[in-house]
Amino acid sequence: MTADWRADTVDAIRTLVVHAEPEVVEEVKWRKASNPDGVPTFSCAGLVCTVETYKDKVKVTFAKGASLPDPGGLFNASLDAGTRRAYDLFAADQLDDDGFVELVRAAVALNRA
Question: For the domain bounded by 5-112, which CATH number is listed?
Fold first, then answer.
């Protein structure tokens, strides 16, 4: 990925995930010709979230997002999905650090339950 706002956003997300849960494991999956960088995935007692970059956004998909509390209203995509929920961030958006950390912590707690 070229160094632009998307790379900065992915770096910020990575930092927040590790801050929220130091035991998280990051792996890169699904490398292919159209996406040689692959998709960062974060796991702790199961999949927590994936981070995908698109031309106009960064999408953070929480594997069990439909079962998570979202008091900050961060989920704004995949709202009709049965299990997952996503947080799409566009260039002009400000990442809600506190709300995001709470989502990660809730996802890990759900995985551990």
Answer: 3.90.1150
pTM, entire model: 0.93
Condensed to tens digits (0 to 9), the pLDDT of residues 53-76 reads: 999 999 999 999 999 999 899 999
Joined together, the tokens standing for residue 62 give: 């929480």
SS (H, E, C) the chain: CCCCHHHHHHHHHHHHHHHHCCCCEEEEECCECCECCCEEEEECCCEEEEEEECCCEEEEEECCHHHCCCCCCCCCECCCCCCCEEEEEECCCCCCHHHHHHHHHHHHHHHHC
Q: How buried is residue 107: exposed, middle or buried, by Cβ count under 10 Å (0-12/13-18/19+)?
A: buried
In one letter, which amino acid is 43?
S
